[in-house]
């Protein structure tokens, strides 16, 4: 068997995740030929095909599926090894693999800047995706920590809240509902909504609310981006349900307005999460402690 490298395995895992060489190249910040070369060298090392074309995408061969299972487990072991070795270095330097749900991108950069002022030698590798994909990264031990709005109940994890996560119904400023006070939830049944895609935590929270109030939800359009949804709301396409943390500029400028709806639940929370049996490196522990101790105050002053 020919030698193979950790980089080749990491490239394979990204291609398997994206089911596309081009998308994997974008995520890895390399060219498509570079990704194809890494995969080809890995296949040559084992003497068999791990991927095969499927239309414009790719799929795993049977051998590729077996390889994926063991590669994910091996990467989890490597991360534990890194954490153990980091204990011998302390906080002078280190690396954190952090994944956050897409709504958190509005405040995570600010928190990372503040964290870097305290620990300049720690490098944070950041991934941003929807809740479903972020949970996949966590389950496969591909990240050390996750920041999300609601901790999963079906995983063996440790989740600690560090800041509030108020959610609100919003509309264009000239919408008729903006002028009404203490609106009954049932009134929302008469209006169309622009919403996040399936797999989004905000989408799931909104659907739970409509189900609890036995109110039908009219979906005008799904969009994979909070920014696009805000533009759609401002244009009058429909109402939406968004985190207040994502709208500080639009609310302050009057481009988006809140709808006063009765019987909304109290604000949720942002959680820093990791697998319960995960060995956190000193760097990861430092970032977790930083979020718990300073995250809320920094976020409140920011948004």
Write the layout of secondary structure elements.
Elements: H1 6-18, H2 21-28, H3 32-46, E1 51-54, E2 57-60, H4 62-86, E3 94-101, H5 108-118, E4 122-129, H6 131-139, E5 145-148, E6 157-165, E7 167-171, E8 192-196, H7 201-212, E9 218-223, H8 226-234, E10 240-243, H9 248-253, E11 257-258, E12 268-275, H10 282-302
Parallel strand pairs: 3-4, 3-5, 8-9
Antiparallel strand pairs: 1-2, 5-12, 6-12, 7-10, 7-11
Give helix % range.
40-55%
The run of helices and strands is HHHEEHEHEHEEEEHEHEHEEH
Mean model confidence by pLDDT: 89
Number of helices: 10
CATH level 1 name of the largest domain:
Alpha Beta
What is CATH's topology name of the largest domain?
D-Maltodextrin-Binding Protein, domain 2
Domains counted in the coordinates: how many? 3
Instruction: Describe the largest sheet.
Output: 5 strands, mixed
- What is the overall shape? globular
How many β-strands, per DSSP?
Answer: 12
Second-tier CATH architecture of the largest domain: 3-Layer(aba) Sandwich
N-to-C CA distance? 55 Å
Q: By CATH's scheme, which homologous superfamily of the largest domain applies?
A: Periplasmic binding protein-like II
Overall structural class, as computed from helix and strand content, comes to: alpha/beta
Low-pLDDT regions: none
Strand order of the largest sheet: 4-3-5-12-6
Task: Give structural notes.
The structure is a single chain. The chain is about 45% helix and about 20% strand. It is of the alpha/beta class and about 300 residues long. The chain folds into 3 domains: about 5-70, Arc Repressor Mutant, subunit A (Orthogonal Bundle); about 85-165 and about 270-300, Periplasmic binding protein-like II (D-Maltodextrin-Binding Protein, domain 2); about 165-265, Periplasmic binding protein-like II (D-Maltodextrin-Binding Protein, domain 2). α7 links the parallel β8 and β9 (about 220-225). It is globular, with a radius of gyration of 22 Å. The N and C termini lie far apart (about 55 Å).
């Amino acid at each position: 068997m020919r030698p193979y490298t950790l980089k080749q395995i990491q490239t394979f895992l990204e291609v398997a995740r994206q089911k596309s060489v081009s998308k994997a190249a974008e995520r890895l910040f390399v060219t498509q030929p570079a990704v194809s070369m890494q995969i080809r060298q890995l296949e040559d090392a084992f003497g068999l095909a791990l991927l095969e074309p499927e239309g414009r995408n790719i799929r795993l061969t049977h051998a590729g599926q077996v390889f994926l299972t063991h590669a994910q487990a091996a990467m989890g072991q490597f991360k534990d090894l890194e954490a153990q070795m980091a204990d011998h270095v302390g906080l002078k330097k280190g690396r954190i693999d952090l994944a956050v749900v897409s709504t958190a991108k509005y405040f995570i950069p600010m928190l990372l800047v503040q964290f870097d002022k305290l620990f300049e030698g720690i490098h944070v590798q950041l991934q941003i995706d929807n809740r479903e994909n972020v949970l996949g990264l966590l389950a496969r031990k591909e990240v050390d920590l996750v920041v999300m709005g609601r901790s999963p109940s079906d995983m063996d994890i440790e989740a600690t809240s560090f800041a509030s996560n108020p959610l609100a119904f919003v509309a264009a400023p000239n919408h008729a509902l903006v002028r009404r006070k203490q609106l009954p939830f049932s009134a929302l049944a008469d209006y169309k909504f622009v919403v996040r895609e399936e797999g989004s935590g905000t989408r799931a929270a909104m659907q739970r609310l409509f189900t609890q109030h036995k109110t039908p939800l009219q979906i005008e359009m799904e969009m994979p981006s909070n920014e696009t949804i805000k533009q759609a709301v401002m244009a009058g396409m429909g109402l939406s349900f968004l985190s207040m943390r994502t709208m500080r500029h639009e609310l302050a400028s009057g481009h988006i307005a809140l709808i006063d709806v009765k019987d909304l639940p109290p604000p949720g929370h942002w959680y820093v999460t990791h697998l319960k049996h995960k060995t956190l490196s000193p760097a990861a522990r430092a970032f977790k402690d930083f979020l718990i101790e300073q995250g809320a105050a920094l976020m409140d002053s920011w948004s």
